[in-house]
Design goal:
- The chain is an all-alpha fold.
- The chain has a single domain, classed as Tetracycline Repressor, domain 2, CATH 1.10.357.10.
- The protein has helices at residues 8-29, 36-43, 47-51, 57-79, 86-103, 105-112, 127-151, 160-183, 198-217.
- Helix 5 crosses helix 9 and helix 8 (160-183) packs antiparallel against helix 9 (198-217).
Length: 220
């Protein structure tokens, strides 16, 4: 008796399972060292079975990065509605970003620290998929810009170029905190815990908002 074909829900669940595993592998060893055969072994599948869902590594990489942004936006839409003003919304966004980095480090690294790939030259690349990813990445950046401008009134007096600089400063500071704890490189400065302590998160966010506000109030 022929095997019953998977339902769309079963196919989606299997794709997510593959991407969950691939995100961690790519974040740990890098895209170029990702072996579809080893990935299949971790999942209890064959490599040819993975190719039924993802035709090549490039598509798997883009789809996994897309899933990361989709996951973050879903959490953001669910959790940020409780903010009562723009400043609280920006604080909650920063908390959510740090929390996401700790709960899903593989996806986080692929989203914000992707390997340097020249995918545009690949004949195997799905151009529509790449455009979809580019739109999501831009949407994330514009959302951050909007949050900062709404939370800090003096940002409205700055040029768009200056607003981007301040938003980049904000993001880079959070990424720096995440990386320090992820790579455990400065053990003397950190508590001996795996996750960033809540008091460190809150202190960092308050310090960062003060610094960003000061930057926005400067006349350039």
């Amino acid at each position: 008796m022929p095997k019953k074909p998977f339902t769309p829900e079963e196919v989606a669940a299997q794709c997510q399972r593959i991407m969950d595993s691939a995100s961690q592998v790519m974040a740990d060893v890098g895209f170029h060292h990702l072996s579809m055969r080893k990935l299949a072994g971790q999942l209890g599948m064959t490599a040819s079975n993975i190719y039924n869902y993802f035709p090549n590594k490039e598509v798997l990489f883009i789809q996994t990065r897309l899933r990361g942004f989709d996951m973050f936006f879903a959490q953001m839409n669910e959790q940020m509605g409780e903010a009562i003003n723009a400043e609280q919304a920006l604080q909650q966004f920063a908390r959510l970003l740090i929390s996401f980095a700790q709960q899903d480090p593989g996806y986080y690294q692929l989203m914000f620290q992707p390997p340097r790939l020249n995918l545009k030259d690949s004949q195997q690349l799905d151009q529509e998929l790449e455009m979809q990813l580019a739109r999501l990445v831009e949407e994330w950046q514009r959302h951050l810009m909007t949050l900062i401008v709404d939370a800090i009134p003096s940002m409205a007096d700055q040029s768009e170029s200056r607003q981007k600089q301040i938003a980049l400063f904000f993001t880079a500071s959070i990424h720096g905190l995440v990386d320090v704890y992820h790579y455990r490189a400065l053990s003397m400065l950190m508590d001996s815990v795996d996750l960033i302590p809540e008091e460190i998160v809150e202190c960092h966010i308050q310090w960062l908002l003060t610094a960003v506000t000061q930057q926005a109030e400067q006349v350039v």
